[in-house]
Amino acid sequence: MKKILSTIGLVSGCLAFSAIHSQVQAQTRTVTGTVNNGEKPISGVVVTQEGSSQMTTTTETGAFSLQITGENPILIFRHPEYGERKISTDGKTSFIISLTEKVKSIEEVVLNAGYYNVKAKESTGSISKVTAKDIENQPVNNVLSAVQGRMAGVNIIQGGGTAGGGYEVQIRGKNSLRTLLNNAIDGNQPLYVLDGVPMLPTPNSPFSTLILPLNNSNPLNSINPNDIESIEVLKDADATAIYGSRGANGVLLITTKKGNKNRSALSLQTSLGFSTTASQLKMMDTKDYLNMRRQAFLNDGITAYPATAYDLNGIWDPTRYTDWQKILTGSTATTSTISLGLSGGSEQWTYRVNATHHGQTTVFPADYGYKNNTLTTGFTHRSADKKLQLSLNSHFSQQDNTVINEDFTNLALTLSPNAPALYMADGSLNWENNTFTNPVASTVSTYLNASKQFNNSINLGYQLIPHFRFDLNAGFNYQNSEEFSLRPHTRFNPAYNLTSSTSSSTYTSSQNSFSYLLEPQLNYDYQRGTHHWTVLVGGSFQSSDSKQSALQGSGFENNSLMMNINAAKTKTFSDINSTQYRYAAVFGRFNYQWHNRYILNLTARRDGSSRFGPNNRFANFGAVGAAWLFSKERWLEHSSLLNFGKLRASYGKTGSDNIGDSQYRDTYSVASSSIYNGVVGLVPSRLYNPDFSWETTKKLEIALELGLWQNRIQLNAAHYRNRSSNQLVGLPLPAITGFTSVQANLDATVENRGWELELQTVPVKSKDFTWQSDFNVTVPKNTLLAFPNLQGSAYANQLEIGYSTSIVKLFEFNGIDPATGLYRFTDVNGDGKITAPDDNKNIAELSVKYYGGWSNKIRFQNWDLSFLFQFTKQNNYNYNSQMSLPGTMINQPFEVNNVWSATNPTGYYMPYSTGTNAVKNMSHYNFTKSTAAVSDASYIRLKNVQVNYKIPLRSSVIKEATVYLQGQNVWTLTNYFGLDPEFIVTGYLPPLKTWSLGTQINF
Fold this sequence. Notes:
Helices cover 8% and strands 47% of the residues.
């Protein structure tokens, strides 16, 4: 009986299991499909079933496969850059899903604050960010050209159009009285940080004076802009105080690109561009020029033309005309870039390797150019348990810049329009019977600069125990630079019978720098209920060593030996300068959040720097920041208008030790020319000052951030006030001391205050058409608040309390005196003479009144159009400030035809003169130092325009191909009297206009 029952039970169990299994099989099935954005597949989309733990991720082709259960489940598609989408399966097993790109709100943006990352919605500081989408593929050598006009509070001025040159970067104004116009080191330079490691300053290039404005270059010249993922700029005290003595002038954080998870890609990017001078000045033609010259002799009572007046006395052809701007600076420079990259990874690691060659020729009539070869690598790893994180980044750059020794821009404006042809009929240089200094001859005089840079960083993080994480940020920089200025005898007229053994010379200098950084950190993160604490403590140690030497050689048996100084007959050695820089600090941060809407942030740092004497080697810096996310209050939580609202404020103190190494020490130089009894002497070169201390800047800011209408409109408005004191300058000394100055702190205070406004809008957004429009404007105000005993100092004629530090004191120009035909100026002291400093009391502000940019991005199906307008309101020096006396053997702008005479009483310029009359010469000199020399230099510039077309492909090899056309410095609207309103100093090639055609292919 039991056996029968057992058999029946077994059979019943089998039947029940079979029924259940059949039912489960009927409810469990596999669905497949692809996900795209309307144009191309999207990888990395997370596909889940609602209410289930089943999950998968789309492949590189956008494909997915997922097992689902239930009769009619809901599928959810999520991607960080696209809007979430839910669909009902409705019994289907195959799907084609299209996702729409997100309007990225401030709540989703993550900012790099240097020692920590913070969500933009939770940031208590002022941080501006520009991403790769804004700067990639632009035809520029330096990424700073690509970000001009894109960030409020960041004013960038390009020094000139010669490749390898420098930039002036001001973050919320000039805090220091030290600039490159009055000091070897710019006291307003921001701190550049590449992947967590501060970059070395660019080496000094003493022999580039005639080709690079202020001998200046920029550290970011070495970085390929297409390797950059983002640039964050830290501006206020809350953001910069954690950098202590290096944060007074702001911090630029550059983050390079990393590989993509679960996706391997080979990318090829090529471009070819053509550059020309963006603007030219209309000059006198031959008829106007010769009329000016003849009138000058007539006005000076000279009836017989001198033998050296070749343009008038018949030696030069009076009917000849040459547009020297077209000949000397009007060539078309070519720019070529080719970049090859490989990237990929998995859930736990990523890699990226990218090599780039960039080359550019010049607009000068010489076969020279600039080359930059870069190799960038990046590797990241995250352990399976997510406790260990590792990031390795390295960047290698090799720059070679070969240009003419002297910029031709000024010569192109001043050379007589009827000057002889450059070449004879047989192709040899024309010296016109020794009456003409042929400018092309000087193209054999070259400036060469070769530099190598290697930047390496490691970022290590490990979760020790719950809530505690240890981080290590470390890295090193190596920089080697060598420059040559070659001046062969062939640059002179052969009639002089000069030889290489007597008239060829070489100037050379070299610099090597090495720096390393160690920054251990401990982080504590704890959340309980509505309270959230974050604590960071860390230390920083940096060591830098550099060595610089320079020498001159003259007299070579052959010009081919000029690169070898040992071949020179005469050698002159300069001092070999070796400097050391040691920097140590401890820092901390405390962040507290309550109810995710009230935020308090405290930062502090204690710094020690070897640049200061033993009495003031250490200093303390810190800041407090607070934010209120009022949009999370109950009375606004469900507002259909306001999606995000934050009010924040900060106050703190930062500093600057950017003065050069060991400036407090007393130093001696070798007096190689002073030999006594066969012993080389030493000459004191700097005085000792153990009390030399830090510049300090106290920063205050209050800001409002809003997101409206589903974040289609985002508004940031900020008011800031920075006060910098304890200025590091050279205090003038009486000549009897044997020194002109001593490095010391000046009790002067400089204030920078202003308003910043950033507006981001998305007026139209649909599947096929999107339009994003962004606008920013900054209204700065720079003021010298205090300067004890200013009138008795060497700065009395440069500064004035209550005005900006960018002023110039001028004679007040009052037109032409009809009685004398000379310029007339206001005689302030009434002594009957026009002299400085008694009469140049008219103060002209050269500081910027406001600046900003307006950018637009338009996407229609496979087409993308973007453009950026940059604008600046300012006054600056015009051409009158550098003008030679009209009537001499120098060409003049067309406007100089408006000369005063009895028949033209409204003429602007005084009657022409040959330069032989001392009274007229002085009158013209005063004119160049008067209010006539400064005028409106405002401009609106179409800074960048780009058109992209994504080619539709059905290829298993090429995943994506884009063709693009780029324009840089395309068009400028200005009333400025001069070549270009954007300059640091006049007389150099202005920024170039470039059109570039390129392709980007991903395999």
